[in-house]
Structure formats: C-alpha cells, structure tokens
C-alpha cells in the first residue's frame, strides 16, 4: 500500500474582483469523496496545508442543495467529523518530502485560488513529484495549485499537458460569477496547459501520463478511482 499526500488549501476567504472578501475553503464533497476512496483502498493519506493550518470547509458545500441532498450533506459532515483530528493537525507543506509519496492529490473549492496557486513550497513539491513521475491529481479548482510549479527559467511545469479544470462556464454560471477575481481555466491556458473540458456539472477526468485531473465536484470519485488504478498499474 502507498502513502498519498493530499494538499488542501488553508485559505478561508478569496478577495473578489470588487475587493470584497468571499468566505471560502475546501469543497466538502471533493475532500471527502477522494479521501474516503483512497483510504478505503488501504492507502495511507496524509493531509498537508500551507503553514500546517487547519483547513476550513466552505460552508456552502455542506448545504443540501449543493451537496446533493440532505443525506449526502449529512454524510459529508459526518466524515469530516470522523477525520477532524487529521484535519486539525496537517503536515506543514514546506516540510513535506515529495519522494515519500506515490501520489499528490489536490481537491478544490475556491481556496486554492487564494493560496495554493502562489505557494512556492507547493510549486517545488509539484516540480519534484512530476520529475519523478509521481501521480499528481488536482480537480475542480485544485488545478489552480499547479500554477505554482515553475522551472528555474519561469516556464510552467505543466505547459503542453492535457488537463481538466472547473470551466469558465461553470464558474460564471454556478460558481462565484462575474465577480470572480480570475478564471482558473483562462490562466492555465495562458500558461500553456491544454484544457480538455466536458459538459458542465458532469464528471470529466483527463489523464496525461502521471497527471490525472477532474473538472468539477462531480468528478471527485472518478479522479480517486483513476488514481487507484494508476497506483495499481
């Protein structure tokens, strides 16, 4: 069985285009579905955040209308309660050795747009992981974290790679809308990534070598299953 690193945003707000602060964090379904599937398969999952801060769940993601109903909302909350000790004492991202892990998983929520996208420690870790062929699996807004990974000459580590990410359509019509400070899909394209999008709000997973990415919360379980398949190969 393998050690898997799950890098989670420590942000609890995102500065919007108009300068207002929008409460945010990680998206419950994304962390729960992936963490549960990886752990159920027998792997060890370690959580890490910038500074080792306890991550904040986006409360919007626990509302029944956004979680897929009362039952799912209750399930997500119960699972987060179950792993609260792990969430309360994550690893310090700057102290993590990429070589100790067979996979790096990055769930979303808008939090990664506030911190992981600009985190030099995450960038160094992802650069090392990619060089070693380690499975890297971001999904929804998690691919924002990929933007931190640059070569010494400033080139984007994942330029030319196919990936999925929360689309402009999903952001503008079901995310934070026109007040979103920047669109992750657009910035990834500008950096040279090849964005492969599926229908809005439907699971869509893209694999390009060791990079396994998902488009939205609905992709969470399928991303985890692809990670498991890659680890078993």
Detail the topology: elements first, then pairings.
Blueprint: E1 3-7, E2 13-15, E3 21-23, H1 28-40, E4 44-49, H2 64-67, H3 70-82, H4 84-88, E5 91-92, E6 103-106, H5 111-114, H6 120-131, E7 135-138, E8 162-163, H7 168-174, H8 184-190, E9 194-195, E10 205-208, E11 211-214, H9 220-232
Parallel strand pairs: 1-4, 1-6, 4-5, 6-7, 8-9
Antiparallel strand pairs: 2-3, 10-11
Family: Belongs to the peptidase C56 family. HSP31-like subfamily.
Keywords: Glutamine amidotransferase, Lyase, Stress response
Domain DJ-1/PfpI: 30-229
Name the features.
5-stranded parallel sheet, 233 residues, Class_I_gatase-like, 17% strand, two-stranded antiparallel ribbon, 11 strands, alpha/beta, Type 1 glutamine amidotransferase domain-containing protein, Rossmann fold
């Amino acid at each position: 069985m393998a050690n898997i690193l799950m890098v989670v945003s420590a942000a609890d707000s995102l500065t919007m285009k108009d300068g207002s602060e929008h409460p945010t964090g990680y998206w419950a379904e994304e962390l729960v579905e992936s963490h549960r599937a990886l752990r159920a398969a027998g792997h060890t999952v370690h959580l890490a955040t910038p500074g080792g801060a306890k991550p904040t769940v986006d409360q919007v993601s626990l509302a029944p209308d956004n979680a897929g109903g009362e039952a799912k909302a209750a399930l997500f909350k119960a699972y987060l309660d179950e792993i609260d000790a792990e969430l309360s004492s994550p690893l310090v991202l700057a102290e993590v050795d990429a070589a100790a892990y067979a996979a790096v998983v990055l769930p979303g929520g808008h939090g990664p747009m506030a911190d992981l996208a600009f985190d030099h420690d995450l960038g160094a870790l992802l650069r090392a992981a990619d060089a070693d062929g380690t499975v890297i699996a971001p999904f929804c807004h998690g691919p924002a974290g990929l933007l931190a990974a640059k070569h010494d000459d400033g080139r984007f580590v994942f330029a030319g790679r196919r990936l999925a990410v929360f689309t402009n359509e999903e952001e503008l019509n079901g995310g934070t809308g026109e007040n979103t400070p920047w669109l992750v899909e657009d910035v990834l394209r500008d950096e040279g990534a090849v964005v492969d999008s599926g229908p809005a709000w439907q699971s869509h997973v893209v694999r390009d070598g060791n990079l396994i990415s998902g488009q939205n919360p609905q992709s969470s379980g399928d991303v985890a299953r692809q990670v498991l398949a890659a680890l078993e190969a």
